[in-house]
Design goal:
With 460 residues, the chain is of the alpha/beta class. The chain is built from 15 helices and 11 strands. The chain folds into 2 domains: 215 residues, P-loop containing nucleotide triphosphate hydrolases (Rossmann fold), CATH 3.40.50; 229 residues, 3-Layer(aba) Sandwich (Rossmann fold), CATH 3.40.50. The strands form 3 sheets. A 6-stranded mixed β-sheet has the order 7-8-6-9-10-11, with helices on one face. A 3-stranded parallel β-sheet has the order 3-4-5, with helices on one face. Bound molecules: guanosine-5'-triphosphate (GTP) and magnesium ion (MG). The site of magnesium ion (MG) has 6 residues, from helix 8.
């Protein structure tokens, strides 16, 4: 925050209303990539022969957030871009705001700019407009103008050489200065700088410098080369709030590595896939990739969407396939509504694994949150669940429980790894592709419930 994004966006709307939540007080676990769809503007369209492309402003996370790793920030933005690309949205350009009232070009500012370059790639720099903000903090134009000069010469020069444009965002004039345009008009001029470049490119049929290129580059760097076909992939799945992230943190012995929701929060915390790579150890000969996934039964995505996200993540991360892998499915034992929910998501899984040899052995069902109900009740419910999950168990799925002994998660994952290593290299990736296909079939959910009923033994 602080460079004036909200002010800029509100100015574009020009209706005096506040379109941006200022000072986002949202918990750090929300996705911080917030797109703003700007109103279309006809005033500047005289320069352009066609309808101006709709402009989407992306309020990207954490360029100032020192607690996140660079890699994490890049991954989140890339994730957002990738989803929007699927929706056929075209990124026309990028407006980068810099607070000119900042006394120093700080390490953070440098880091921001580096990140930014890394994210969008050199070829896209011509679609970047570097905009200085907060000139109003100065008495007259001398000091900020000198700073702008310095920025251009020393810090932005690389980008300017690659055709990035520079602009000032001004709210009102300073002493002794007459301003041609300010506020709303000024903001739209800046937007049209982006649009002009975009339209030129379309017309001149210049090589595509669309977001796909950028993302592929980014993914190529930060994802694809990271993984190996020999990695063991363990997906930690379950309904929202089942304790997936806590489980992974326990296993890694890294509290806070995956974001965990506040105890009182009703909102699902993990909305995107995150993972950690664990090097081979005495417990497993191959590397392990442990993956935190969005929860089922969550208010924002259907279970099918969640499966699809997981499956496409696997395909993209392991373009050459992934041999060994499995799923840990966590179930909150303190929930009494088990009978009426939590079935379909497991159902999708089960329907697809029916065809794959040894597939049941790639699933471990684990109960969590025993302390919420006490050991005695826990044992009773576990026994009940075991009879409900008997079918899976007979086919080779393992049933386990996480009784809040901090070493449970480690034990469960280590045992699973060893079992998976013993399985040989049948293709886990293909299996997930089947899940994805299944999830695209319209209306497949009704059949799933029935199937699940057969598998698990029908219940009320
Ligand atoms: N008592 C108890 N609480 C737990 C356990 N595991 C997780 N919790 C709590 O349950 C809440 C949700 O845990 P998370 O690990 O964030 O669960 P999640 O499945 O990752 O949830 P979302 O990503 O938010 O959908 C947090 O408040 C945890 O502290 C457990 O084994 N026992
Ligand atoms: Mg989580």
């Amino acid at each position: 925050m602080g460079a004036g994004k909200s002010t800029f966006i509100n100015c574009l709307f020009g209706d005096g209303l506040d379109h941006v939540e200022v000072g986002h007080s949202l918990t750090s676990c929300t996705i911080n990539v917030t797109p703003f769809i700007l109103p279309s503007d006809n005033r500047n369209s005289k320069n352009l022969n066609s309808e101006p492309p709709r402009v989407i402003m992306l309020d990207t996370p954490g360029f100032d957030d020192t607690t996140e790793s660079d890699e994490e920030i890049l991954r989140r933005i890339a994730g957002w871009l990738k989803t929007s690309y699927r929706k056929k949205m075209v990124l026309a350009g990028i407006i980068y705001l810099h607070d000119i009232s900042q006394d120093r070009f700080t390490g953070t500012a440098r880091r921001n700019l580096n990140l930014f370059n890394q994210l969008y790639g050199e070829a896209s720099l011509e679609k970047v407009v570097l905009v200085s903000t907060k000139w109003e903090g100065f008495h007259d134009i001398q000091a900020p103008a000198a700073r702008e000069r310095e920025l251009k010469d020393k810090h932005w020069n690389f980008m300017i050489e690659k055709r990035s444009q520079v602009a000032r965002f001004r709210l009102h004039s300073l002493e002794g200065e007459t301003l041609e345009k300010k506020g709303n008009e000024n903001a739209w001029d800046i937007v049209s700088l982006v649009r002009q470049r975009h339209v030129l490119e379309e017309k001149g049929k210049a090589p595509k410098k669309s977001p796909i290129y950028i993302q592929q580059k980014l993914f190529g760097k930060s994802m694809n080369t990271k993984f190996q076909t020999s990695d063991i992939v363990i997906l930690v799945t379950g309904s929202a709030g089942a304790g997936r992230s806590t489980f992974i943190n326990d296993f890694l012995g890294k509290p806070g590595r995956m974001k965990v929701g506040e105890p009182y929060s009703l909102t699902t915390c993990t909305t995107q896939i995150d993972y950690e790579i664990v090097n081979p150890s005495s417990q497993h000969k191959n590397r392990l990739v442990i993956v935190d996934t969005p929860g089922f039964d969550n208010e924002n995505k259907s279970d099918f969407q969640v499966w699809q996200e997981i499956a496409s993540w696997i395909q993209e991360s392991f373009p050459h396939g992934v041999g060994r892998g499995g799923i840990i499915y966590l179930h909150d034992i303190s929930l009494v509504q088990y009978r009426s929910m939590g079935n379909t998501n497991l159902g999708v899984l089960i329907e697809s694994i029916g065809k794959t040899e040894g597939a049941y052995r790639r699933i471990v069902l684990t109960t969590t949150k025993w302390s919420k109900i006490g050991a005695q009740e826990g044992i009773k419910r576990q026994a009940e669940l075991e009879s409900q999950w008997n079918q899976l168990n007979t086919h080779g799925s393992k049933l386990d429980s996480l009784r809040e002994n901090s070493s449970d998660a480690k034990r469960i994952v280590d045992e699973f790894c060893r079992a998976l290593e013993g399985e040989g290299g049948s293709n886990f990736g293909d299996w997930l592709k089947d899940v994805q296909k299944l999830s695209q079939k319209p209306g497949s959910s009704s059949g799933l419930k029935g199937l699940l009923g057969t598998l698990l033994g029908s219940r009320a």
